[in-house]
């Protein structure tokens, strides 16, 4: 059994949907298909999910007449796709469903927005099921709520409930034919539609793979492989053929736009391999994400490029708070009180490298709006009485990732030497005890140069 997920760019119009259905029908093991909402196409530069959000916002702020203008565009998009697929009757059904959304009772603002957002994936799944059926194959649309995709009531940021897994397993096992499952959403125990964070279709696929104990979770994208570095920064970067769950998690955190960060958790816990493949080149083996490389005893065999490094990434938008106080290490509870001040503002921290008498806390800029940083600084001064406190803004984090780093000598020296030669000043170095990644904080304006220097040092 294979769980197969297709993203919005692969479902943007009728021709692309025909292509992904050819991929599905080429392998009888592809029994459960997860679809996103239609993305941007050549004729329509808007993503359906974005238009649904605009329609929901208009309904809440400007009235249903304004919301209907957006909905008219969405309906026209789906009706056009249905016509291209040769299933116009399915398009009429989608039309009826979409217009009916605007007349639904608004239980709450967040629930209404989630209900609207989910309609993109939901109706796309109906069209895909109708098209495969029109080709003479048995295909079934699966409503996530009815099949047991139970989520927390954190609308827009929901998580799956543990009781979902046996329900999904039982209901999916009873189906005959290819199951077309909408991604991104499920239902709360109260029966309300709730969505995962954006990119949640990846999460849906991982949950289904874990539920049915799939042999592999295939995730089709626009590229042949995951590459060792952003292809926009390096010409012809080396492909990653095999990567571990931990390495992919680190790379996703640092800016790789392959997976939403939490999406791998269900398959990671279930030990199910992931295969990232290309819609445009379906015979390419793609990148495999596994728990551990077979026969590995420290070396990173199987990864193209460096024998010890899987990939290099960078993420922007960080601020560091540097706090120093003489005999800090003797002051019991100093670190706890510092982090409590940050926690009280509802801010999570990214890294906390320390010295004997100093500590640095790295925070995301996006969490420091509305005067939060200023309040944090004032409380640190008043409550912790530091000798010095310094703020450095506009930082980027460069991340070197590889399970094999722990067995290598000179990895840090190679990285720092490469950055030095490129004229990139390092503000902070951090490496956890697992030694899966090494992180360098640098000025944002030097991040791209730093990534290129690290890639050259480790891969060329």
Task: Give a verbal description of the structure.
By secondary structure, this protein is an alpha/beta fold. Helix 7 (164-173) crosses helix 8 (200-212). It contains 14 helices and 18 strands. The strands form four sheets. It has an eight-stranded mixed beta sheet with strand order 3-4-2-1-7-11-12-10, with helices on both faces. It has a six-stranded antiparallel beta sheet with strand order 14-15-13-16-18-17. A two-stranded antiparallel sheet has the order 5-6. It is globular, with a radius of gyration of 24 Å. Residues 296-306 have low confidence and may be disordered. Strand 14 (349-351) and strand 15 form a beta hairpin.
Structural class given helices, strands, pairing?
alpha/beta
Can you give the mean pLDDT?
90
- What is the percentage of strand-forming residues? 15-25%
Q: Strand tally, please?
A: 18
Largest sheet: 8 strands, mixed
Overall shape: it is globular
> Which strand order do you get reading across the main beta sheet?
3-4-2-1-7-11-12-10
- How much helix, percentage-wise, in residues? 25-40%
The stretches of 5 or more residues where confidence is low (pLDDT under 50) are 296-306
Helical stretch count? 14
Distance between the termini: 39 Å
Radius of gyration (CA) equals: 24 Å
What descriptive keywords fit this protein?
alpha/beta, six-stranded antiparallel beta sheet, 460 residues, eight-stranded mixed beta sheet
């Amino acid at each position: 059994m294979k769980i197969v997920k297709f993203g919005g760019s692969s479902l943007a119009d009728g021709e692309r949907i025909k292509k992904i259905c050819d991929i599905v029908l080429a392998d009888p093991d592809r029994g459960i298909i997860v679809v996103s909402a239609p993305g941007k196409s050549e004729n329509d530069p808007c993503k359906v999910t974005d238009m649904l959000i605009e329609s929901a916002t208009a309904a809440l702020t400007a009235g249903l007449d304004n919301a209907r203008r957006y909905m008219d565009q969405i309906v026209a998009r789906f009706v056009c796709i249905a016509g291209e697929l040769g299933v116009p009757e399915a398009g009429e059904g989608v039309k009826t469903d979409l217009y009916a959304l605007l007349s639904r009772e608004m239980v709450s603002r967040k629930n209404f927005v989630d209900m609207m957002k989910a309609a993109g994936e939901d109706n796309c799944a109906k069209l895909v099921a109708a098209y495969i059926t029109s080709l003479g194959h048995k295909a079934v649309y699966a409503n996530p709520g009815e099949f047991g995709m139970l989520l927390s009531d954190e609308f827009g940021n929901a998580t799956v409930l543990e009781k979902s897994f046996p329900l999904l397993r039982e209901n999916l096992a009873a189906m005959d034919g290819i199951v077309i499952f909408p991604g991104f959403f499920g239902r709360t125990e109260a029966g309300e539609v709730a969505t995962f964070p954006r990119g949640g279709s990846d999460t849906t696929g991982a949950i289904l793979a874990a539920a049915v104990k799939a042999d592999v979770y295939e995730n089709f994208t626009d590229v042949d492989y995951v590459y060792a570095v952003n292809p926009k920064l390096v010409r012809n970067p080396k492909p990653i053929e095999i990567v571990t769950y931990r390495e992919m998690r680190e790379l996703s955190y640092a800016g790789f736009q392959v997976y939403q960060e939490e999406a791998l958790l269900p398959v990671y816990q279930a030990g199910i391999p992931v295969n990232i493949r290309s819609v445009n080149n379906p015979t390419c083996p793609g990148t495999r994400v596994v728990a551990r490389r077979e026969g590995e005893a420290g070396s990173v065999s199987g990864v193209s490029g460096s024998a010890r490094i899987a990939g290099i990434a960078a993420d922007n938008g960080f601020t560091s708070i540097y706090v120093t106080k003489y005999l800090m290490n003797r002051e019991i509870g100093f670190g706890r009180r510092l982090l409590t001040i940050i926690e009280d503002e509802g801010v999570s921290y990214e890294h906390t490298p320390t010295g004997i008498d100093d500590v640095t806390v790295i925070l995301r800029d996006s969490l420091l709006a509305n005067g939060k940083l200023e309040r944090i600084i004032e409380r640190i001064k008043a409550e912790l009485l530091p000798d010095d406190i310094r703020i450095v803004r506009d930082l980027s984090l460069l991340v070197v990732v590889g399970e094999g780093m722990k067995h290598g000598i000179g990895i840090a020296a190679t990285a720092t030497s490469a950055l030095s030669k490129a004229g990139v000043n390092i503000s902070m170095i951090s490496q956890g005890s697992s030694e899966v990644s090494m992180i360098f904080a640098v000025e944002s304006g030097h991040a791209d140069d730093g990534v290129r220097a690290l890639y050259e040092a480790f891969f060329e």
